[in-house]
Amino acid sequence: MEETRHPSVPAADVSGSPGPATQPDRRCEVCDAKLSAYNPGPNCWQHTMGWPWRGPSAKPRY
After folding, report:
1. Residue 38 belongs to domain spanning
2. pTM above 0.85, yes or no
3. Is residue 2 part of a domain?
4. What gap in Å lies between CA 5 and CA 12, rounded to an integer?
5. Is residue 9 a part of any domain in this protein?
6. What domain count does the chain have?
7. Which of 39, 18, 16 is nearest to 27 (CA)?
8. What letter does residue 50 receive in the DSSP assignment?
9. pLDDT tens track of the chain, all 62 residues?
10. DSSP SS3 for 34
11. Is residue 42 part of a domain?
12. 10 Å Cβ neighbour count for 35?
């Protein structure tokens, strides 16, 4: 028996590619900026820390 294909029915994807992401974009809870895949936290880099990072040896200014 030969299978007949109708033009209105798309062929099944057998390429194994994952295709587009089905999850919605992750966004910053504070400013709603789109988060990258490299950012593991819930906030963008500007809202992750309270003060700009100056390094571990930074001394407070008096």
Report:
1. 27-56
2. no
3. no
4. 11
5. no
6. 1
7. 39
8. S
9. 666 666 666 666 565 555 555 678 899 998 999 999 888 888 888 887 755 566 666 666 66
10. strand
11. yes
12. 17
